[in-house]
Write a structure and sequence with these properties.
Ribosomal_bS6_sf; Ribosomal_bS6; 27% helix; 3 helices; 121 residues; structural constituent of ribosome; Transl_elong_EF1B/ribsomal_bS6; Alpha-Beta Plaits
């Protein structure tokens, strides 16, 4: 399964973060139910001012909650996630990035445990 990263800006609710929690749990549940795996979830800021105002679902947004999610899933499920994000009124902006498909692209190669000195050759 390919590794993907989701960058998302959700609509800010100053009263309660339950909308953001509901959005994140819905996305991760959809990934898990399809046999995928969520590797990491990182909060990038709550209630950050957007560089420019964004219009989404006939509402102007000036602030947003930013997060990234790193997950493994199939391209078919990714298309379903994209449709879910498009229809969800909590989502202001999102972007999926493919990080890699093969193991050598996903994990960095560690340095060798034995270093050879070329001067003795």
């Amino acid at each position: 399964m390919p590794l993907y990263e989701l960058f998302c800006i959700a609509a800010h609710n100053p009263v309660s973060p339950s909308n953001l929690r509901q959005l994140i749990s819905g996305i991760s549940r959809e990934v898990h139910n399809s046999g995928g795996c969520v590797r990491s979830l990182q909060n990038l800021g709550i209630g950050l001012t957007l560089p420019t105002r964004k219009r989404r679902h006939q509402v102007w947004h000036h602030r947003g909650d930013h997060f990234t999610m790193l997950f493994d899933t199939s391209p078919v499920v990714l298309a379903k996630l994209n449709a879910t994000m498009r229809e969800d009124p909590l989502v202001v902006k999102w972007m999926f990035t493919k990080k890699g498909e093969k193991l050598k692209h996903i994990t960095p190669t560690p340095p060798p445990s034995i270093e050879f000195d070329e001067s003795f050759s």
